[in-house]
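User: Could you walk me through two proteins back to back? I'd like the raw sequence and the structure tokens for each, with a short line separating them so I can tell where one ends and the next begins.

Assistant: Of course. Protein one, sequence then structure:
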Amino acid sequence: MRAYLDLMRIPGARSLLIASTFPRLAYAMVSLAIFFLVQEASGSVAVAGLAVGVSSGIGAITAGPRGHLVDRLGQTIPIAVLVPAYALATVALAVFAHSPVTAVVLSGVVGLCAPPINLSIRPLWQVLAGPERVRTAYSVDAAYTNLLQLLGPVIATFVALHVSPTAAILLVGFCMLVGGLLLAGHPHSRRWVPEPRQPGEVRLWRSPAMRLMALEGLAMGLAVGLITIALPSLAVTTGHESMTGWLMAGMGVGAIAGSAWAGARAHGIAPVRGLRTSVLLFAVFCIPIAVLPIGPWMIAAIVVAWTFFGPAQVFYLETIDIVRPSGTAVAALGSLWMIEGAAAAAGNALGGVIAQGPGARWALVIASVIVFASPAIFTVGIRTVLAPAARLTTRSAETQPAAA
């Protein structure tokens, strides 16, 4: 606890968390807001899953270019342009989604305009906390993000079912507009200087370590994409719509506990070794989710599984920091999220099709098998290209971006 209190005393730390609140809440709500809006407009779970997949997929495949843009221009311009565009796109979706085609197309526009919120926040923690406290900072950031991801599905479900799906998607746009502009005006964000590239450093995708991380992202993204659309689909098709938010919120409860543990208790664990163990345990505890009935036991299984997913988020960021090429502080994570997010979008779309056909249970079963590829890939990486992250080392402070 002392480590967290000391971190929050650093100038700019608390205001950074506050500035990140509304845009992250928007991202936590958007998938279910789109799902309920399109399901109402089309009358089809499959079309709703496709719309969510298209939105998240386009957002994912453009994450890499947005990361490169931030590494070139800084944070202020990309955020200041994309935040209002995203808000306008949600308004267009709310007003004009009268048919399956327009709903899916406009959902894609929402994904296209997604601002680089998380991509911009992560390097700011490197500046504020320094190498010695970066795991604690990532833990705080991950726990807070997961708290918002816990609240987002509950809020989106409540507004969609008790007010209207249109109101839910408009709330997403409002949150992004308010919070995104707060982040764009944050002093540390405005002063952030991109990390310099070291002479002779390989390009991003010529790095064997980054290619291996991308392969793992394909597997994990596909599995999580299947799960995140299979759960609401299962709730809708079995007449338990009101449970949707609680099923999704269980992920946040577990991830908060796990990421908080990683920052407070995970001292002495090398990043990629902690990452492998976390995703292995996550895979093991995904199995019960596929077979348990909707209710308290399924929610409990989700909480336990995501308790191991939380530390993985923290160790993942540290591993990337160590193995990525210099000069790619934002682009490296953005490019990996591009791969993982595209796979998750494919999982969303596939999950909707499976739910409409064989049933949502089959999507959960398939996901519980695919997810085991992740710890297998990290096992290979520890022995080869990820070996630097298997030691208790961090990227030198001299290579971190600085505020000027």
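----
Protein two, same layout:
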Amino acid sequence: MTIQEDPEISETEKVTRFGCGALLGVVLGISLAVKLALDSFGWSVAIVVGAVLVCGFLALKHGDEFWYAVFERGSHWWRWW
């Protein structure tokens, strides 16, 4: 019995996954910074950079499963935004 592993993804797909996740992170980070009405520019930048890194790495690691979780299972969160 063989265990089938996921195929290795190419560099282009890695960049695409991270880039699309980072784009979502920019939108979420800016939305969160505005929603919290942060007066400090430093905190606003930190939130946006954190959201970019988290979303980018999650999209890179999980691929389509990440996007399914964000838009299908997480649809009730979008009403909050």
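The helical segments are 11-35, 41-62, 64-73, 75-80.

Let me know if you want the two compared in more detail.
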